[in-house]
Specification:
Elements lengths: L1 E10 L2 E11 L4 E5 L6 H8 L7 E6 L2 E2 L4 H5 L2 E4 L11 H12 L4 H10 L15 H13 L5 E5 L7 H18 L2 E5 L3 H7 L2 E6 L2 E7 H5 L4 E7 L1 H10 L3 E4 L2 E3 L6 H10 L3 E8 L3 H10 L8
Parallel strand pairs: 3-8, 3-9, 6-7, 7-8
Antiparallel strand pairs: 1-2, 1-4, 4-5, 9-10, 11-13, 11-14, 12-13
């Protein structure tokens, strides 16, 4: 549904993107991750036609953004950077004006969207009186008014309280479930991304270091939390037997290794084993691991 190929972009001679390519499949929720300055917003800006790439192309529904901007963006709703509204006007008047910039304002459709995002009681109030969470809901209503097939969201939960974050998560999952919506969003809240996303793309310093599912990222090697003494001797034994030391106290065994055999061998070598427990690495764990060692990440 959405594809970027070979994106390069520099600002003032400083590279922002270097050969970034990935795909978002129809009906999936896809997370775009990376530290500040990794190139996430630049990538979204190129997809939205707001930033011109030095090289490369973005396609939405098979239409090239750089060749047919209006045709490609006709399929998209977006919250990009900080949503801007007229604070002295009501939420309803804002929707009417902003929708009019790109097409006809359908009052019935607008009422339905406003109800869906939970703003019916306050839609006639001035936006200047809205909380941050209400402004985000109004921005979401604006993005959904054109009935898009693709939703692009730039840090949509930034500044929201836990209740607002959960509401957003449930809302987006509902859009995908009920309407087959395709969603691409970036976020620093990795626990939320893990609960919502089918696949993720991770950027570091403008380069792609992973694009795929979380299971692809975890790999096949089972990971264990261990407490072994003396650690230096235990580490030497583990590495000689094919284990990967992720960090002191955390190791990955070969897929065919039997942990019971490994533990028995460690004890037989005089190593004290206080803990040897399987763990399921979170997205935060995986993100930190491959950010520190991007060459170990899968990029398929």
């Amino acid at each position: 549904m959405l594809r970027v190929n070979g994106l390069f972009k520099s600002f003032g001679g400083k590279p922002a993107l270097h050969d970034v390519s990935f795909e978002v499949k129809r009906g999936e929720i896809h997370g775009l991750l990376g530290h500040n300055g990794a190139g996430k917003s630049t990538t979204l800006g190129i997809i939205l036609g707001m930033v011109e790439p030095d090289r490369g192309r973005a396609h939405i529904g098979g239409v090239c953004v750089q060749e047919d901007h209006a045709g490609a963006l006709r399929q998209v709703g977006a919250i990009f950077e900080s949503p801007a509204f007229y604070d002295y006007l009501s939420g309803w008047e804002n929707l009417r004006i902003l929708a009019g910039f790109s097409g006809r304002f359908d009052e019935k459709a607008a009422r339905d969207v406003v109800e869906r995002v939970g703003l019916t009681k306050r839609i006639r109030s001035k936006v200047g009186s809205y909380s941050h969470g209400m402004r985000q809901r109004l921005a979401l209503a604006q993005a959904l008014l054109p009935e898009p097939q693709v939703l692009l969201l730039d840090e949509p939960t930034d500044g929201l309280d836990p209740e607002g974050i959960k509401w957003f998560r449930d809302f987006i999952l509902g859009l995908r479930r009920e309407r087959g919506m395709t969603v691409l969003f970036n976020s620093h809240l990795l626990a939320e991304v893990e609960q919502m996303c089918d696949r993720v793309t991770i950027l570091k310093e403008g380069r792609l270091i992973h694009a795929g599912s979380l299971e692809d990222l975890r790999g096949e090697a089972p990971v264990y939390e261990v407490s072994l003494e003396p650690w230096h001797e235990a580490r030497t034994f583990l590495e000689l037997n094919g284990a990967q030391v992720i960090s002191p106290g955390r190791i990955a065994l070969p897929p065919d290794a039997d942990p019971a055999v490994i533990v028995a061998a460690l004890v037989g070598c005089g190593i004290r084993v206080s803990a040897f427990s399987p763990v399921r690495r979170s997205l935060e764990d995986l993100y930190l691991e491959i950010s520190a060692n991007p060459t170990a990440a899968a990029t398929a």
